[in-house]
Amino acid sequence: MYAMISDESFEREVDFKPGQNVGELHYWRKHPNLHGWMKALYFAKGGEQPDFNCTPVTLTEADLARLEADIKAGNLPPTEGFFFGASDGSESEDDLAFIAKAREAIADGDTVYYYAWW
């Protein structure tokens, strides 16, 4: 599970092909509830891949505000799946650190997106 950063703007918020100028902003391992939240966002933005694997979804400032509120309220959706492991609530501090980094990147004019390969 990755948050990536790019200096590109994409025509779509989902299912786009990033170019060569990308970098890793954040990494999670086995945090299925965050993945479930991102999957719901992906479909809300028009994503079409049923298993939400190896496809990006952009994260805007508004998305980050909703994610932050859901993390603080303990509202990430319980998510299970093959290879997913389990979220136990200890991830919140790291998730909030990611949001701070993502906001800074967006303020600098970069695009932030989530991408998972499982």
UniProtKB/TrEMBL annotation:
<dbReference type="GO" id="GO:0016301">
    <property type="term" value="F:kinase activity"/>
</dbReference>
<keyword id="KW-0808">Transferase</keyword>
<keyword id="KW-0418">Kinase</keyword>
<protein>
    <submittedName>
        <fullName>Phosphoglycerate kinase</fullName>
    </submittedName>
</protein>
